[in-house]
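Tokens for chain A. Residues wanted.
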């Protein structure tokens, strides 16, 4: 899991608008993700490559554990990802943000 962080007005939204081509793409040059040119591709095609854009939300799925919430994020947009790999990625993400101890209740 990678992210882009910065203060308001630093260009985060503009960066992702250019990368995804919504509502506009680059004026010059090419955009590659993992070796694949992505300008002109649909949002769905870009997501299938593993590049997703999300918006900050301060909610979680009620009734699910912290781990189950992380597992949803680790599985989203990767239909070929196996259950064991998704669980490992969710555990890594929780470790990275210091929430491993809260994973299961």
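Reply:
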């Amino acid at each position: 899991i990678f992210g882009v962080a910065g203060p308001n007005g630093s260009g985060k939204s503009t960066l992702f608008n250019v990368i995804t081509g919504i509502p506009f793409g680059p004026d010059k040059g090419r955009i590659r993700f993992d070796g694949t040119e992505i300008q002109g591709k649909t949002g769905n095609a870009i997501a299938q490559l593993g590049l997703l854009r999300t918006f900050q939300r301060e909610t979680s799925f009620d009734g699910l554990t912290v781990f189950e919430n992380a597992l949803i994020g680790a599985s989203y947009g990767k239909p070929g990802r196996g259950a064991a790999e998704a669980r490992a990625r969710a555990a890594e993400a929780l470790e990275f943000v210091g929430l491993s101890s809260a994973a299961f209740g």
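DSSP finds four helices and two strands in the chain. The chain has two domains: 1-55, 66-102.
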